[in-house]
Design brief:
Length: 301
C-alpha cells in the first residue's frame, strides 16, 4: 500500500468518527434499551459483535440496558431432558417443569453476557424481572385458553435499573416476573423490552431480529423502509401488509412511541455491528419508527 493509499484509509476512518459525533452528542447520558434475541444470540461471532456495540455505546456516554430472550436455548434444554413440548394457538405451554428449566437457562444466558461485557472492561449485572419487583405480571391466556406460566406485564418498577445505571453498571435483564401471589412467570422478551423502555423513558429502543427491518412487501427485501412514522405504521398494519412475527413487534414499537420512547429501531441482528451502523450513521441500515414530527437523522444539526 502506497503512502497516499494509507493516508486515504486513515481519512476514511476519521470520517466515520466525525459522522458519529452529532449522534454521540445528541444521545449522551440517554437511556437506550436493546432487546437481544434471534440469531445474534446463537452465533458466537455475532454475539460478540453485539456486546462490543453495546459496550461501545456505554463507553461513549449512552446508558444501555440489555433485555434478552432465550427461546432457542430453552427449547434445546427442554429437549435434552426428554420433555415433549405442547402448544396452544401456536404458543408453547409453559408448565411448572418448563418454567423451572426456562428460568435456569435464562439465568445462564444472562451470566454469559455479563462475562462478555466485563471482558471489554465494563461492569455488568444480570438480573431477572423478579429482582427488586422489576416486572410484575398476571397470568396470560391465549384466546381464553390456559398456556401455563406465561405472564402479561402489569407494572414495571424501574428503581433497581436506575440504581444500577447510576452506579455505572450495565443492566442485563431476563424476562421473568412475579404475580401478586409471588408465582414465577415467563414473559415474551419483546414485551418486556417495550415495558422497560416505557418505564425508564428510554430515548431509544432497539430490537435485534432475524429480518432487516419493516418491508412494504413482506416478500420483497428491496421494499425495506428506513424511516416510518407511527401513522404510516398503523396504515401498513391496517392494509394487511404486516404479518407473522413482525406484527406484534411493530405493535410493540407503536406502543413504545406512544408511551414516551423517542425512537424505536428494528435491526437485522445477523449483520455484524448493526447497532453501531443504525445509531451512528446518517443512513442507518434497519427501520426506525418515529413519533409524529420526529426526524431520525441529525446530520447538520
Amino acid at each position: 500500500m502506497s503512502r497516499e493509499e494509507e493516508m486515504q484509509t486513515y481519512l476514511e476512518k476519521a470520517k466515520v468518527l466525525v459522522e458519529a459525533l452529532p449522534y454521540i452528542q445528541r444521545f449522551n447520558r440517554k437511556i437506550i434499551v436493546v432487546k437481544y434475541g434471534g440469531s445474534a444470540m446463537v452465533d458466537e461471532a455475532l454475539k460478540r459483535s453485539v456486546i462490543q456495540d453495546v459496550t461501545l455505546l456505554k463507553l461513549v456516554g449512552f446508558k444501555p440496558i440489555i433485555v434478552h430472550g432465550g427461546g432457542k436455548e430453552i427449547s434445546r434444554w427442554v429437549g435434552k431432558v426428554g420433555m415433549e413440548p405442547h402448544f396452544v394457538n401456536g404458543l408453547r405451554v409453559t408448565d411448572a417443569e418448563t418454567m423451572e428449566i426456562a428460568e435456569m437457562v435464562l439465568g445462564k444466558v444472562g451470566k454469559s453476557l455479563v462475562r462478555l461485557v466485563q471482558e471489554l472492561g465494563v461492569k455488568a449485572v444480570s438480573i431477572s424481572g423478579k429482582d427488586g419487583g422489576l416486572l410484575q405480571v398476571e397470568k396470560k391466556y391465549s384466546g381464553g385458553e390456559d398456556i401455563g406460566f406465561v405472564g402479561e406485564i402489569t407494572e414495571v418498577d424501574p428503581k433497581l435499573l436506575y440504581d444500577l445505571l447510576e452506579k455505572d453498571f450495565l443492566p442485563i435483564v431476563c424476562p421473568v416476573g412475579l404475580d401478586k401471589d409471588f408465582n414465577t412467570y415467563n414473559i415474551n422478551a419483546d414485551d418486556a423490552a417495550c415495558a422497560i423502555a416505557r418505564a425508564v423513558h428510554a430515548e431509544k429502543l432497539a430490537f435485534l431480529t432475524d429480518i432487516e427491518g419493516v418491508r412494504r412487501d413482506p416478500d420483497d427485501p428491496s421494499t425495506l423502509i428506513s424511516e416510518l412514522h407511527v401513522k404510516e405504521a398503523r396504515e401498513l398494519i391496517g392494509n394487511g401488509n404486516i404479518g407473522g412475527g413482525m406484527l406484534p413487534k411493530l405493535n410493540n414499537c407503536i406502543d413504545a412511541i406512544e408511551n414516551g420512547v423517542s425512537r424505536v429501531h428494528i435491526l437485522d441482528g445477523r449483520i455484524a455491528h448493526c447497532l453501531l451502523l443504525e445509531i451512528f450513521t446518517n443512513k442507518g441500515i434497519g427501520t426506525a419508527i418515529l413519533g409524529e414530527g420526529e426526524t431520525n437523522y441529525y446530520d447538520g444539526e
